[in-house]
Design a protein that fits this description.
Blueprint (H helix, E strand, L loop, with lengths): L18 H7 L9 E8 L5 E2 L7 E3 L1 H14 L3 E7 L18 H10 L6 E6 L13 E2 L2 E2 L2 H17 L3 E4 L6 H11 L6 E8 L6 H7 L2 H4 L15 H13 L3 E5 L5 H11 L3 E5 L1 H12 L5 H15 L3 E4 L2 H5 L3
Parallel strand pairs: 1-3, 1-4, 1-12, 4-5, 5-8, 8-9, 9-10, 10-11, 11-12
Antiparallel strand pairs: 2-3, 6-7
This protein binds ligand PBG.
Length: 329
C-alpha cells in the first residue's frame, strides 16, 4: 500500500499559520482588472442618490465623465452604462432606443471622447424605453421575439455609432447575438465586442435596478418569465451559452451572481471562454443594508463575495462596488 503523509506529519494548518504564507498559496485574487463598473446616467444637472443602492447615484453626464476618469485611474477596465429615461420618452414601441441623440448615446460619446483606456459596455434591451417595462415589443400581451430583434439591432447600431466598444444584449430574445453581429459587421463595426447576457435568470434580485432606472412602475405586476431563464434550470444555461457562442458572442455572462455560482462554474468549465458574472443590484443592496445595520462588515463581505466569483471561474465581475473595492485593493 502506498504510504501517504498523514497527520501528524501532515498538517494543513501550516500553510495558514502566517499572513505571508497565506498570500503565497492563495489560489484566487480579486484585482481591479477583474471589475466592470455599472453606472446609471440621467438627464439632470446633478448626481442623485438611489435610496435602495447606498453609495450609488444616478449620474449627470458630467458626473459620468468624472467617474470614468476615476475608474480608469483605479485600473478598472470597463464601465457598463445604463440610462434613466424620462417617462415622457417611453413608448410602447421603444422608439427612443434608436434615437441617435438619446441620453445613452450622449453619455457614451461624452465618455468615449475622453480617450481613456476604458471599455464602454452598452446594454441592449428595450426596457429603459418601453412604457410597459418589458425588454421587447408586446403584441397581444406577449413579448414577441423576431420583431424585437429588428428593434434590438437598431438600438445596438445606434450605440456602436455613439462609441460603444462592447454591446451587451441583456434581453434574452432568441437569435439576437447573430442578428446584432451580422448588422455590426455589415456597418463596419467588426471590432465591436459582443458580451452576451447568455444565462440571465428571471430573478427577484433585480428590484433596486428597476428602482434606479425607473422601470419598476412601468412593469407593474408584469414579469419577464417568458424570456428570462427559470431559476430551477442548469442544463438550459449551457444550451443558451452554446447558442450565443455559435452566433458570435465574444464573452458570455451569468446573472445574477451569488445565488448562481454553480452556473458560473459550469459555464466556465464547459466552454473555457471569457465568462462574466453580474453581482446584481439586489445582492449589492442586501450586503449594504446589513452593513448599515451593523450586522455585517460591509467591506469584508463584499470582498469575500467577489473572490467567490473568481473561485467559481469568472473572468470579469460586474459590481456596483467596483469603485469602492478597487480603491481599497
Ligand atoms: C434590463 C436589465 C436588468 C438588469 C440589467 N439589465 C433588469 C431586468 O432584467 O429587469 C439588472 C441589473 C441589476 O439588477 O443590477 N434588461
Amino acid at each position: 500500500m502506498a504510504t501517504s503523509a498523514q497527520y501528524p506529519s501532515l498538517r494543513h494548518r501550516r500553510k495558514r499559520r502566517w499572513g505571508w504564507i497565506r498570500e503565497m498559496v492563495a489560489e484566487h485574487r480579486v484585482t481591479p482588472a477583474d471589475l466592470i463598473y455599472p453606472i446609471f446616467v440621467h438627464d439632470g444637472e446633478a448626481n442623485e442618490p438611489i435610496p435602495s443602492m447606498p453609495g450609488i447615484d444616478r449620474l449627470s453626464i458630467h458626473g459620468a465623465m468624472e467617474v470614468a476618469r476615476r475608474a480608469e485611474g483605479l485600473g478598472i477596465p470597463a464601465l457598463a452604462i445604463f440610462p434613466v429615461v424620462d417617462a415622457s420618452k417611453k413608448t410602447d414601441g421603444a422608439e427612443e432606443a434608436w434615437n441617435a441623440d438619446n441620453l445613452m448615446c450622449q453619455a457614451t460619446s461624452a465618455i468615449a471622447e475622453l480617450g481613456l483606456n476604458l471599455g464602454l459596455v452598452c446594454d441592449v434591451a428595450l426596457d429603459p424605453y418601453t412604457s410597459h417595462g418589458q425588454d421587447g415589443l408586446v403584441r397581444d400581451g406577449y413579448v414577441v421575439n423576431d420583431e424585437t430583434l429588428d428593434a434590438l439591432v437598431k438600438q445596438a447600431l445606434n450605440q456602436a455609432q455613439a462609441g460603444a466598444t462592447v454591446i451587451a444584449p441583456s434581453d434574452m430574445m432568441d437569435g439576437r447575438i447573430g442578428a446584432i453581429r451580422r448588422a455590426l459587421d455589415k456597418e463596419g463595426y467588426q471590432d465591436t465586442l459582443l458580451l452576451s447576457y447568455a444565462a440571465k435568470y428571471a430573478s427577484a434580485f433585480y428590484g433596486p435596478f428597476r428602482d434606479a432606472v425607473g422601470s419598476k412602475g412601468n412593469l407593474g405586476q408584469g414579469d419577464k418569465r417568458t424570456y428570462q431563464m427559470d431559476p430551477r434550470n442548469t442544463d438550459e444555461a449551457l444550451r443558451e451559452v452554446q447558442s450565443d457562442l455559435d452566433e458570435g458572442a465574444d464573452m458570455v455572462m451569468v446573472k445574477p451572481g451569488m445565488p448562481y455560482l454553480d452556473i458560473v462554474s459550469r459555464v466556465k468549465s464547459s466552454f473555457r471562454v471569457p465568462t462574466a458574472v453580474y453581482q446584481v443590484s439586489g445582492e449589492y443592496a442586501m450586503l449594504h443594508a446589513a452593513s448599515q445595520n451593523g450586522w455585517l462588515d460591509g467591506d469584508a463581505v463584499m470582498l469575500e463575495s467577489l473572490v467567490a466569483f473568481k473561485r467559481a471561474g469568472a473572468d470579469a465581475i460586474l459590481s456596483y462596488a467596483s469603485l469602492e473595492i478597487a480603491s481599497k485593493l
